[in-house]
Each structure stands twice: as C-alpha cells, then as structure tokens.
Amino acid sequence: MASYFVTSSAQSDGRHTVHDRDRCPPSRFALGGMEYLGEFGDAQQAVVVARVRYAHARGCPCCDPRAPLAPLAPRHATQA
Ligand SMILES: [Zn+2]
Q1: Furthest CA-CA distance within the chain
Q2: What is the pLDDT of residue 67?
C-alpha cells in the first residue's frame, strides 16, 4: 500500500495529477497544494478515487508507468 495525493490546483489544461508519496520526489510535496487521497495498492485505484473529486484526475508518469503520457503533462526533472 502507498499513500496517494492529488494536486488541489488544476494545471493549465484542467488536469489534476495523482502522486504516490513514496515514488515522487519529495520536492513535489514540499510545494504544498496536495490533497491526501488515502492508501491504495496501485495508482489506478488512487486515480479512480481522485476522479470522484476531480473529473480530470490522472496518474503522473513517474508514479504510474502505465499512465498515458500527455504532451501537456509536466515531467519531474528530478526523476531518478
Ligand atoms: Zn508524481
């Protein structure tokens, strides 16, 4: 299980990104603007819950390799 968060502010294209607390760079969370979603077995479950709050929620590429990459989605510069 992992702790998942969703960004409370939409990106310029209206998306809210779901992040895994353990997989995303800590700097991502230091900025604030994250809402706690809960503990989930994988990012797909977290995205389903996030979509209850935000219809345009999606997993971020660094947290969920299966998330489809979108041109407007920001990538983490510090991804290991
Ligand atoms: Zn992430």
Answers
A1: 31
A2: 55
